[in-house]
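re: that chain from earlier
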Amino acid sequence: MPITSLMQSSVRRLVSLYAKQSVSRVPGLLGLRCIAAPYSSAPNSEEHAKRNYANNVSEYNTVLGSLIAQRRPYLLRDVYDDMMLDGVQPIRDTFHSLIVGAMKGSRLQDSFYFRDEMRALGLVLDVPLYNFLMSTCGKCKNSNAAVQLLEEMKRSGVKPTGQTYICLLNACAAAGRVDRVYAIVRDMTAAGLGLNKFCYAGLIAAYKNKTPVTEETTNKIVELVKQSKGWSSVEASGDIAENVMMGVSEEELYNIPTSEYVHRRGFLNRQLTVYHVALHACVELRSVETMETLLDMLKQDNYSPDVFIVIQTMRCYLHCGYLERGVKVFEDYFSAGRPPMIELYVALVEGAMVGHTPRGMEIAQETLMKMSARGFFLNAKMGNDLLLAAAGEKTGGYTTANYIWDLMQSRRINVTLPAVEAYYKGLKEREIPADDPRLLLVARTLDNLRLKFGAGRSA
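^ sequence. v structure.
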């Protein structure tokens, strides 16, 4: 079989596998066919039908929706290529799914590719699609491309909405372009559009991302939080129907740090978006003083910290080296009888490991034990992030990294190449016998991952 045909067949096999995995969850995938026979050098139509996973635009759209739900945006372009090879004509809904999927995966090049393909088929981009494209620019910190999209909208006769300007504002904020952010605010004001909480969130993010960081940075953040209390209802906050249908919250569209928690019951008070962004900025700026000022303001406004704010408070103390104060925030939360959440444990472990101090590593391991005792288990992302962080410990017994590795092995959690590489390097730096079972297992895992991703073998 020619190399190109072999590669195409491999992609079909991979996408078919993921489509099959989601049959029980996504209506419509029951009709999709997965590969069931070996490939021959000259496949006939019957064999093609056996390994094909979609036959029409409706089934292809279902596969796209399934891949987006499974967070596998890297397969979207392959599915689109299959549509073209099969002679299936994409429709507007197809491109909405493709561009939303590219946005969720922060795949800027793919999003612009789908935009160009849409144009080539004679389809006109609408306002929501431009908003999704701008949001992708923000995720990738490419404010120039976002500004060009606005100019393109105007040339094409597509009228920007208030949501479009907020997408643009937050895209420029992600790049720290305070000047552009204020220019957008002036344009919105001139057009009679009010500034809502997401505008103030963008202004705060712009100052946080602006370099160099000065004393004005934290002062401006506090000032903007105060100003936001009178935010306008001219363009009141609310998810529009298009975004709801595509599974995109306003927080995700504007790249607000709370986006992954929006649908978690009891996690967020969405009225506190400006506080969320400001306190998240305090962690990155490592400003305990600013954080405590904001918490006082929150109390004066008669609001209690939600789970996200508790986590940011903990992280700020821990990242600034105030380990015991971070632990106290954690303990106070549970003493108040509030519901346990795994993110609290993970935040304490992650923050305690900053700097890899002996006391910090001790806190991290104790917290992991408490977490396991309460029946909480790490998912793949949490586990790999913590293993990567723990593997950076240069002194000590490496017990925290070993404990995280054992937790992941007991749950058969897939380990990523960067995490295994860092963990293996840390083991090799210690006096461990060459035939140690742990070392042999980690080395074998590393070899398998390197061969899989073409990175060679371990030393």
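Residues 9 and 412 are 29 Å apart (CA to CA).
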